[in-house]
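User: Please predict the structure of the protein below. I'd like the answer in structure-token form so I can feed it into my own downstream comparison script.

Assistant: Understood. Taking the following sequence of 247 residues as input:
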Amino acid sequence: MPETFDKQTVLRHLGDLDRRDPRRRIFGAEVHQYRLNPPLPVAVIEAFEGRHGLSLPKDYRHFMTEIGDGGAGPYYGVLPFGKDDDDRPWEGDGLVGDPGKPFRHTSAWNLPDSFWGAEPDWPPETPVEEQDRLMEAWDQELEAHYWHPSIMDGAIPICHKGCALRQWLVGHGEQRGFVWDDLRVDQGGIAPVLNAAGEPMTFSDWYMGWLDASLGEVGETPCSTDAPSWRRTWRRLWGPGGFRGKG
């Protein structure tokens, strides 16, 4: 996969998808409509990098400032820079940690079974007041150990998959440049997004893999000439249901 993007190739293939998928069968297309937002002024990226003392991955930086500040892409699309779903700023919202600190993970992470075994499970006769107390205490444990923003230090959200599932791009640390899945809402922890060969995916891998797979689903020749490869990538990233993926 390329280290960056050819703007005309991206726009041409999005146009192909727009024409060939009028019913918006590809998952998420009914939201992003195969449209990109206007590119982001590079000064916005530079200000962010200056505040946090980092340099965002080249392919992501190029995409946002030269092609589009979010829009058409995997699942519900690429998030605009600095925004979570519903157009909410993610800095200071309790979800994103400190982008200037190194991302601490190098392999899939989750809390141990012993933690999840402590989740409250009360008998039917338990008073409502006691149920509320137990759940409040459990929520505090989750906030401290599972949802604490520091867990995602060094990464920024780039995609909302639906049902509070997200994908992140690591901007600082050993995993810089790679995309990670955030499955915590389903108690699945976090894990690197891998291609069909089991290798971590960069932002450009991730985006062009989606374009290739989507073009294949609507009957267009994909960007890659390796058809079995894009089909495997599709199944790995979006499941055997293809565009009928999880909502």
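That's the full token string. The helical segments are 7-20, 29-32, 42-52, 58-67, 113-116, 128-145, 203-217, 227-238.
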